[in-house]
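B., you asked whether I could sanity-check this one before it goes into the benchmark set. Here's the sequence:
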Amino acid sequence: MLKFALKNMAIKKVQVILIIISIVLSAGVGVLAFNVSEQVSEGLTNNAGYYSAIIGPSGSATQLAMNTMYFTDEPVGTIPYSLVSELSQDSRVKEVIPFAMADNYNGFSVVGTTPAFLSAKTLAKGRMFTEGEAFEAVVGSTVAELNKLEIGDELYTSHSVGGDKHAHPLKVVGILEESHSGFDKVVFTQIKTIWQAHDHSGEHDEANIGVDLLSAGHTTEEATEQATEDGHGHVTEDGGHGDEEHEDGEHSHTSNTVCAILVKTLNPTYAMSIVNEYNGKVYMHGEDSYSLQAIEPMDTMRGVLEETDNTKYIVFVLCAIILIMNIIIISIITLLNMYHSAKEISLMRLIGISMKKINMLYLIQNSLIGLVSTALAFGISRACLVLMSDYVESMGAVLNLSKVYPLEWVILFAVFLISVIPTVICTVSMSKKDGINN
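And here's what the prediction gave me:
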């Protein structure tokens, strides 16, 4: 019976291909949409719950959240590090973590922070960089794998991709375990490393200073003049410059800046009060003023997820339409097959083959088609995950190709049933006709 079914499929390969295409489309799109939406939702919410509040420069709240928690987008700007000290003294605050994103290593972002930022992550090799030691680095698993980095290796960072490298290398002291998150593709170091890499570089010569000033919006003449006057100057991320020394020998606040401050409070009520207090606040540091924003990351990410959910529902509606079309196509093709096979069925009935066996023949045939189609749909959905990975990473989530949700198997099984049920209905109805049933 199986051999006959395979031969029958080979003879009617055009109809078989049409059925396979319709099933692959419906099952593949449904599984892909569900998997991506779930992984994106999980990726966006997992990190958001770690922090009670994020304080940064005024601007886009979504950009601030995505940059600090998922390492996407550019930093909104910079604020003085002195604000970290102020928040540390607040009785409502449990922990304060500075965050600065500057430079890159072979296209991977370099983040300056403290070991507390990685407290929830596990090291695969080595140790965490120390609080007081500069130029030590802990790298994500993907960074280590693609660049073949091991403990003790040195890496040279640059201000931009393909730009001049800083003279002082970072020493790899730890490699994170793979987490299928943005942490896999980042180089982490002590925040003072970021400051020192920019503050001391005979390394940061006049030509480089001129380029930085141009990127900050100065004219060529202004950049050249300023670079000549401030040969040892430093250009901050927000376009400020100077690096003048205070009387006590400390660097000015223009060099000691951060992109954001992550805050953990003692309870959610305190988080709300801190957000209300700092959001829209103008923070004075010396003669400079900074306009701040404060966000609750979970609330911000809920807004992002609402947009994602709307897209997901649209995709699911399209999947439902494709499924309905799938049922119609399979039913029509099955009816046509049964109509054109009427003589074959009559001949089989004449030589003594029961209608039950004939029905079983067509059931086996369409079951094979359904199994092959759903397997192809699953494989194609995994291939599409690879193609979509870069786009999804821009949203702050990393797709895990091995992640399969139980509902995906349910979707595939449902589509398989849909591919078989029309055959059962058609064969039963056709068997009742006089020409077939004698």
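One thing to flag: The chain has two domains: 2-44+303-437, 53-295. Otherwise nothing jumped out at me.
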